[in-house]
């Protein structure tokens, strides 16, 4: 096993899991809405980026367009459909699944089964007889910056305090003057924008097609469930664990076995730790404080 291969594969996997899951974690973990259309939100970000780049926009500008389009779509959907589904878990699953189908077929009708792709920038890192995409390795610090930014927003700002109060006890928050409808909308838009950011970042590395969202959705849900109730800590821990397992088995046996090992790890964690990895962290912390 080549050590650099393992390091680069881990960086790639960690970034993929975290970026795929973080938007879903915000919407599901903080709002209780199971967004089965999350993969299609990522697809919209990828399409917005690719189409803008093909129209002549510089890649950073095209990525910003992809994020903006997804955020606006999230705002419209939350105001028209999603806000009616809070505290209706199964209804939200069916509705967002249907939205995902509509978005997929809509993109297929509008743009066909494929569009011209954007090339991956920055070239490759060469080491011996191997090489790895520089761009995909640099997605690791981007993922860490996203996690750090969300931590600041939700723990160090007035908006974050109001958002967490709304999510934990909406009736009390409303009685204290918090516009809970606005907080729910803003939180859903943030989750949508994060999904769009994921699609924008991965647009240069993947084939952008109408069904691409499914490849993100599975890993996102696995990461959120494995991580547990804490949005940021859980996403970070699940990204680290699942990324490591996938990297090791991919380097030893190939991509297929890496995916299988990651899913088996998720099954074991879910079976043994009912509250995921953050539940384990909390139990250890309480035990240490008790001593």
Automatic annotation (TrEMBL):
<dbReference type="GO" id="GO:0006865">
    <property type="term" value="P:amino acid transport"/>
</dbReference>
<dbReference type="InterPro" id="IPR019924">
    <property type="entry name" value="ABC_UrtB_arc"/>
</dbReference>
<keyword id="KW-1003">Cell membrane</keyword>
<feature type="transmembrane region" description="Helical">
    <location>
        <begin position="89"/>
        <end position="115"/>
    </location>
</feature>
<dbReference type="Pfam" id="PF02653">
    <property type="entry name" value="BPD_transp_2"/>
</dbReference>
<keyword id="KW-0029">Amino-acid transport</keyword>
<feature type="transmembrane region" description="Helical">
    <location>
        <begin position="57"/>
        <end position="77"/>
    </location>
</feature>
<dbReference type="InterPro" id="IPR001851">
    <property type="entry name" value="ABC_transp_permease"/>
</dbReference>
<feature type="transmembrane region" description="Helical">
    <location>
        <begin position="183"/>
        <end position="204"/>
    </location>
</feature>
<keyword id="KW-0813">Transport</keyword>
<keyword id="KW-0472">Membrane</keyword>
<keyword id="KW-1133">Transmembrane helix</keyword>
<dbReference type="GO" id="GO:0005886">
    <property type="term" value="C:plasma membrane"/>
</dbReference>
<dbReference type="GO" id="GO:0022857">
    <property type="term" value="F:transmembrane transporter activity"/>
</dbReference>
<feature type="transmembrane region" description="Helical">
    <location>
        <begin position="14"/>
        <end position="37"/>
    </location>
</feature>
<keyword id="KW-0812">Transmembrane</keyword>
<feature type="transmembrane region" description="Helical">
    <location>
        <begin position="216"/>
        <end position="237"/>
    </location>
</feature>
<feature type="transmembrane region" description="Helical">
    <location>
        <begin position="135"/>
        <end position="154"/>
    </location>
</feature>
<dbReference type="InterPro" id="IPR052157">
    <property type="entry name" value="BCAA_transport_permease"/>
</dbReference>
<feature type="transmembrane region" description="Helical">
    <location>
        <begin position="249"/>
        <end position="273"/>
    </location>
</feature>
<comment type="similarity">
    <text>Belongs to the binding-protein-dependent transport system permease family. LivHM subfamily.</text>
</comment>
<protein>
    <submittedName>
        <fullName>Branched-chain amino acid ABC transporter permease</fullName>
    </submittedName>
</protein>
């Amino acid at each position: 096993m080549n050590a650099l291969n393992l390091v680069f594969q881990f960086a790639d996997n960690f970034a993929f899991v975290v970026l795929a899951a973080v938007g879903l974690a915000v919407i599901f973990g903080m709002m209780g809405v199971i967004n089965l259309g999350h993969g299609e939100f990522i697809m919209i970000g990828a399409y917005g980026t690719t189409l803008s780049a093909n129209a002549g926009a510089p890649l950073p500008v095209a990525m910003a367009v992809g994020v903006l389009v997804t955020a606006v779509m999230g705002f419209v959907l939350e105001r028209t459909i999603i806000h009616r589904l809070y505290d209706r878990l199964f209804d939200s699953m069916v509705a967002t699944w249907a939205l995902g189908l509509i978005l997929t077929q809509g993109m297929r009708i509008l743009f066909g089964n494929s569009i011209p792709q954007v090339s991956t920038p920055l070239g490759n890192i060469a080491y011996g007889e191997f090489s790895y995409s520089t761009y995909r390795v640099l997605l690791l610090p981007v993922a860490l910056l996203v996690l750090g930014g969300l931590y600041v927003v939700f723990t160090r700002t007035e908006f974050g305090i109001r958002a967490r109060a709304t999510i934990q006890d909406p009736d009390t928050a409303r009685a204290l003057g918090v516009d809970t409808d606005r907080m729910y909308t803003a939180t859903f838009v943030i989750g949508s924008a994060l999904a769009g950011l994921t699609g924008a970042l991965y647009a240069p590395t993947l084939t952008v097609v109408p069904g691409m969202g499914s490849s993100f959705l599975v890993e996102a849900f696995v990461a959120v469930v494995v991580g547990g109730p804490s949005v940021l800590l859980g996403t970070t821990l699940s990204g680290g664990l699942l990324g490591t397992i996938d990297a090791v088995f991919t380097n030893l046996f190939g991509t297929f076995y890496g995916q299988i090992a990651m899913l088996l790890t998720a099954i074991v964690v879910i079976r043994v730790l009912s509250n995921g990895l953050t539940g384990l962290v909390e139990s250890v912390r309480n035990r240490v404080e008790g001593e």
